[in-house]
């Protein structure tokens, strides 16, 4: 008897395999170095994408996708994708699986394992992806030192890094991807904390009053911090800086107050991020 759950899982593995096959035959000569499954926060497949060595600026360039070396692992700039387009729908509809049900690869593409919760879908997705990878690498005689299989989500930038080791054997390419991704994540975090002029002005003001107050008086500093919260530009200041100043302004006694060095260290941290 046909098991709908097993059938859904088989469809998922088949979908991944068929999409890779389509990419492989079209871009084999361009040397595919990454195959990526893009998912949303519910782990439903959004699209598949690849990148090739000839996509990167060099002696030969791929006419569909041009990448700078620094964008080798920037999946948001990859343009070779397999989406749920009308053309793709038609091609899939013509190739329904003979599995005893009306389920097609198209339906799997639109919603993976709809009867499972998010954790179950995630576990099954990884499991079926791994099985598909094993089949793909064997049938196409792939050198796993030259290609990575990844899963990516714009809602969770850490997903690709966290799953890369589970989906791929150790290789210099894997090391390169993880290192590049961690550097990129750190750079993005630094950009998030890039100080605006309003940030700098309020930090300088706070640091100056802390330095010139002798003897150091936490209650006086708290009062000055409170006055800073009334500034017209305070709402434009980085949220973390706002929280720091609000916490200082809430000081109402010596026991739980920050000393001079602690306040200055907290201010300096915003210049070190």
Descriptors for this entry?
disordered N terminus; 52% helix; 273 residues; 2 domains; four-stranded mixed beta sheet; alpha+beta; 10 helices; elongated; 4 strands
Description of the structure:
By secondary structure, the protein is an alpha+beta fold. It has two domains: 4-177, no CATH class; 197-272, no CATH class. 52% of the residues lie in helices and 9% in strands. It has ten helices and four strands; from the N terminus they run αβββαααβαααααα. Strands 3-2-1-4 form a four-stranded mixed β-sheet. Helix 1 (4-27) crosses helix 4. The longest helix has 24 residues, at 4-27. The protein starts with a helix and ends with a helix.
Give the percentage of residues in beta strands. 5-15%
- Alpha-beta classification: alpha+beta
Number of domains: 2
Query: Measured on Cα atoms, how large is the radius of gyration?
Result: 26 Å
Q: H/E series, N to C?
A: HEEEHHHEHHHHHH
Overall average residue pLDDT:
80
Topology:
Blueprint lengths: L3 H24 L4 E8 L5 E8 L27 E3 L3 H8 L11 H6 L7 H22 L8 E5 L5 H10 L4 H21 L4 H16 L5 H12 L9 H11 L10 H13 L1
Parallel strand pairs: 1-4
Antiparallel strand pairs: 1-2, 2-3
Q: What's the quick description here?
A:
With 273 residues, the protein is an alpha+beta fold. The chain contains 10 helices and 4 strands; from the N terminus they run αβββαααβαααααα.
């Amino acid at each position: 008897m046909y098991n709908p759950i097993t059938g859904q899982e088989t469809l998922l593995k088949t979908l991944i395999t068929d999409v890779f096959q389509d990419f492989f035959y079209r871009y084999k000569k361009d040397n595919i170095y990454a195959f990526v499954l893009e998912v949303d926060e519910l782990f439903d497949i959004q699209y598949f994408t690849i990148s090739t060595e000839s996509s990167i600026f060099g002696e030969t360039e791929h006419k569909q996708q041009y990448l700078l070396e620094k964008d080798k692992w920037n999946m948001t700039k990859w343009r070779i994708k397999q989406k749920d387009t009308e053309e793709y729908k038609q091609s899939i509809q013509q190739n329904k699986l003979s599995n005893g049900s009306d389920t097609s690869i198209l339906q799997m593409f639109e919603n993976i394992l709809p009867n499972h919760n998010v954790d179950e879908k995630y576990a099954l997705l990884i499991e079926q992806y791994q099985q598909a990878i094993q089949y793909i690498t064997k049938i196409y005689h792939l050198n796993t030192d030259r290609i990575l299989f990844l899963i990516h989500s714009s809602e969770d930038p850490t997903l690709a890094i966290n799953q890369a080791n589970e989906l791929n054997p150790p290789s210099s390419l894997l090391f390169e991807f993880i290192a590049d991704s961690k550097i990129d994540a750190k750079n993005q975090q630094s950009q998030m904390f890039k100080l605006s002029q309003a940030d700098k002005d309020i930090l300088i003001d706070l640091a100056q009053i802390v330095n010139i107050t002798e003897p150091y008086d936490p209650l006086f500093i708290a009062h000055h911090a409170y006055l800073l919260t009334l500034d017209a530009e305070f709402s434009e200041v980085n949220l973390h800086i706002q929280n720091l100043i609000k916490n200082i302004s809430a000081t109402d006694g010596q026991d739980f107050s920050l000393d001079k060095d602690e306040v200055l260290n907290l201010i300096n941290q915003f210049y070190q991020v």
